[in-house]
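**Protein record**
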Amino acid sequence: MEVLTLFLIFAFGISFGAFVNVLIYRIPRNLSIFLPNSFCPECKTPLKWRDKIPLCSYILNHAKCRYCSAKIPPFYLLSELFGGILAVFCYVYFFATISALTLFFLVLLFYTLSVIDTHFLAIPDSLNFLTLAFALTFAFSYYDEILIPCIVCLSFIGFATLLRLFVSFLAKKETLGEGDLLLFGTIGCALGAFYGALAIFLAALYALFFILLMRVFLGRKNPIIPFVPFLFLGFLSAFVWQIV
């Protein structure tokens, strides 16, 4: 019975992982997430049900569109797989609780923002606010507190705002985007003050290491990089550190 339960949880996760791919493609392009039916981005052919089975369709079609043979990016498969693994983790660690469900959607939306920022160097406000809402809901259910997560959230947003002004002044260019400020609050209220600060510190280290690699191996002196993926990695690192 437990194996069947985990299979159903995994199926639930990969289904929402597949939906994440819809969000990643459509929201930055101002397209409806419901209509029209899913289609190939290259040939625009509407997809049939057998083309939309999470994990299976990607593998059986050899990572190509069945109609025009255009290559399907690997992150489509990774999104679905990540959703399945995340759902199983949330269920095993938090069981069937509100905390498990809200954490699942929080992390999945954070991942969505990371991929969008990687491709477009910008994140949609709608998903950003929704991610913050799930972070607050998770904090209320997991920590049994209402006031403290809100205070930490606002404190982190305020700190990010001051940091943005200070670093932008020194660098004489925009450093943190406005969307990043809300994500600071998301991280703070979901992880608490200490682990939230740790997550942001780790994110900065990851970004610095990446910039150094680009300078050494690619010769790019002032690369423009998305910061949300590093915030996401910092968030995951600090969260695992917190629960281990």
